[in-house]
Every structure is written in structure tokens, then in C-alpha cells.
Design goal:
alpha/beta; Aminopeptidase; 12 helices; elongated; binds zinc ion
């Protein structure tokens, strides 16, 4: 069932090996110069510049985002996309290891384009720079702008504390809930006042009760963003921000509806009015393309890195790769760069993202991504199976 001759995989691996030092240099330069969501100007310039030098046709500022870009080698379908994240975390630097995601996507795109020259292969290799994964959801914006419309597969890997073939990534969105009441002096004319903050506090109480009967994976976390201006004024305005999370996008829609019902019910009970408004891009849950993630795992196993299925019942955060995976077959495997007692978004993880182990993982993951990309381009049967399963999800 090997769709691609081993000679092609060998050629792809050689192209990655030849670029090993250069890719590690890119990963380290990004690590040493962290930039944040939608402001990753130097990272986008570095990566798109490397692709341009290799003959890719680069388009900058795609989907209305200055730090998003695409780079294409070849033409038309079939098309395989290699995704590059490059945003860091304020105060923590590259504590999510996106410097490695960027270098791996770059390396895989360069290697597969070099190993499969256009005259021998129909189709295209598309490298996609995807800003603001940590907040803002660049991929979600790109999906809406049609960046993935003519793509057969979207491939990336994420460094982690686990080595998992697929990522149990949840759906997530934030909502702003505002309560409007009427200001009054709390002792002078208390009956005139309608306490907007009381409405907001009551919403927290109602949501705590709701939380007990939510399905596994569903969760609401709220904070108060405005709670009044002075203790001698009944608050006429109060506002909270609520993070909603669920195992599936459908469950998230259900949870959103419940938030609305709770807010309206509390408003009716407290004499306030409530406004419920989406505050962020909605991250959809991740749908793994099993046929492609199995390919990736098999290629990675050859480098001596085995991947396991995720631990049942463990949900990780959310990612905008979920929105891509709703449109096209996609993979987002995790490859460990530190032990399971660690965690991403910590100073220790940031350190691990520039460690000798990170370098080994980078090269192994780049090879596996590039070999999987070659399989997508060369095997019509693989693409058909990936699409058939995608449509059935
Ligand atoms: Zn992260
Ligand atoms: Zn991340």
C-alpha cells in the first residue's frame, strides 16, 4: 500500500538533510526574536524571503493580514499546503514552540518542491504563513478568505509534551455579555436604581449551576471586565467576558445558545437588559484526517519517533487548525520536545523549543511532513480516500 516509491521518499529526506543546519538556524532566529499575534513582521519576512529565493511565488498580506502570506511552487491541483505558525506568547517568548512549526513547514515545502520538480509532477506545493494562532485565529481568517479553497491537504506538526498522532483540540469562542440598568444613589433613591452588576453576578451564579450538567469537554470561564464606577452609584452598566469551550463545534453552538438563554433569563429576573455579543473568532474543533496522520506517523516512525493515539478523555486547548480541518483534510500531530511532566506555555517549554532535542524533532518532523506531502501529490488514491473520509466526518 506504499503509494510513493521509496526512491522519492529517499530523495525528499536527502533534501531535508541538506537543509538541516539552515532550518535549525531559522528556528533559532525566530526563537531569539519572538513576535506576537498579527505583529510577526520579521518572521513573515524571513520565511517568505527563504521561499522566494527558492523560486516560490510569494503573495504577502493575504486575507487582509499584513503578516500572513502564501508561497506557491508549481500550478493548480493537486495541491498540498504546509502550514507555518510563528507567533510567540507575550512575556514567555516561544513557549508554544511555533518557531519549530515555522521551520518545519518551511523545510518540508522546500524539500518536496526540490525533490519533485514541476516537470515531473502535476500540481503545487503551497506554503502558508498563518499568523496569530495564540489569539486572533489567522487560519480562521484565511479559511474565510478562501486561501484553502483549492487545497487537497493541509499539513503541520506541533511540538508538545506528548507524541500523539492526532490532537484532541476543542472548539472555543469568547462572548461579551453586557447588562444595562439604571443609575441611582444607593441610599438617596434606591428604588429608582436598576443594578446592572447584580445582573452580571447572577449570570455567574446561573452558569455555575449550568456547569454541573454540561457534557464532557464543555466549559465556561468568565471574568468581570466592567463592574461599575463608584460605590455611591448603583451600577448602570456591567460587562463580563466569557470563554466557552466544547469538545465539538456543535456542542459549542449549543453552549452558546445556553449562555444567551441564561443572560436573557437573568435580565428578566433583575429588570436589566442583556446584550450577548461574540468577541473573538470562533475556533472549530479539530477533525483529524486519519489516513494522512497515519502516513505522517509511519514516516516519523522511520526516524525512530513513535506516535501514540491521544489519551482518552484528555482535551487540550483550541487551535485555528480546527477551522482549516473543517474545510480540507488536515493533520496536527504532536511530537514531544520535553517530558509529560512539563507543559507548554511555560518558561521551561520555551527553553525546550531551542534545545538539542528540539533540533532532532525538527528534522524528523520536517522529513515526515515532506514525505507525507509527496504522498499527497503523487497518489490519487490517497487523496481520494482522504477526501472521502473528510466528507463523511
Ligand atoms: Zn500555544
Ligand atoms: Zn501552539
Amino acid at each position: 500500500m506504499t503509494a510513493t516509491p521509496d526512491t522519492v521518499h529517499q530523495a525528499v529526506r536527502q533534501e531535508v538533510t541538506a537543509r538541516g543546519d539552515a532550518l535549525w538556524d531559522v528556528a533559532r532566529r525566530l526563537h531569539a526574536d519572538p513576535e506576537y499575534a498579527f505583529a510577526e513582521h520579521r518572521a513573515a519576512a524571513l520565511l517568505s524571503g527563504e521561499l522566494e529565493r527558492a523560486g516560490f511565488a510569494v503573495e504577502r498580506g493575504v486575507a487582509g493580514m499584513p503578516t500572513a502570506f502564501t508561497a506557491r511552487s508549481g500550478r493548480g491541483r493537486p495541491a498540498v499546503a504546509l502550514l507555518m505558525e510563528y507567533d510567540a506568547l507575550p512575556g514567555l517568548g516561544h513557549a508554544c514552540g511555533h518557531n519549530l512549526i515555522a521551520a518545519a513547514g518551511l523545510g518540508a515545502a522546500l524539500a518536496v518542491a526540490a525533490a519533485l520538480p514541476a516537470e515531473k509532477t502535476a500540481g503545487s506545493v503551497l506554503a502558508v504563513g498563518t499568523p496569530a494562532e495564540e489569539g486572533g485565529g489567522g487560519k480562521a481568517v484565511e479559511v474565510e478568505a478562501g486561501v484553502f479553497d483549492d487545497v487537497d491537504a493541509a499539513l503541520m506538526f506541533h511540538p508538545g509534551v506528548y507524541s500523539w498522532a492526532r490532537a484532541p483540540l476543542t472548539a472555543q469562542v469568547q462572548y461579551r455579555v453586557a447588562f444595562h440598568g439604571r443609575a441611582a444613589h444607593p441610599t438617596g433613591n434606591p428604588t429608582e436604581g436598576i443594578d446592572a452588576l447584580a445582573g452580571l453576578v447572577e449570570l455567574f451564579n446561573v452558569l455555575a449551576v449550568l456547569g454541573r450538567r454540561l457534557p464532557e469537554g464543555s466549559h465556561v470561564q468568565g471574568i468581570v471586565t466592567h463592574g461599575g464606577t463608584a460605590t455611591n452609584i448603583v451600577p448602570e452598566y456591567a460587562e463580563g467576558l466569557f470563554g466557552l469551550r466544547a469538545a465539538t463545534t456543535a456542542a459549542l453552538e449549543d453552549l452558546t445558545e445556553r449562555l444567551r438563554v441564561c443572560a436573557d433569563g437573568v435580565a428578566a429576573a433583575t429588570g436589566t437588559t442583556a446584550e450577548v455579543e461574540r468577541a473573538t473568532v470562533r475556533y472549530e474543533h479539530f477533525r483529524d484526517s486519519e489516513v494522512l496522520s497515519e502516513r505522517f506517523a509511519a514516516h516519523l516512525a522511520r526516524a525512530g519517533v513513535p506516535l501514540a493515539p491521544p489519551t482518552p478523555g484528555v482535551y487540550l486547548g483550541s487551535s485555528d487548525i480546527g477551522n482549516v480541518s473543517t474545510r480540507v483534510p488536515a493533520i496536527h500531530p504532536f511530537v514531544a520536545i520535553m517530558g509529560e511532566d512539563g507543559s507548554d506555555h511555560t518558561p521551561e517549554f520555551a527553553e525546550a523549543a531551542a534545545s538539542p532535542r528540539a533540533r532532532e524533532v525538527l528534522i524528523a518532523a520536517t522529513e515526515a511532513l515532506a514525505c507525507t506531502a509527496a504522498d499527497v501529490l503523487l497518489s490519487g488514491a490517497l487523496r481520494e480516500e482522504a477526501w472521502a473520509r473528510h466528507r463523511a466526518m
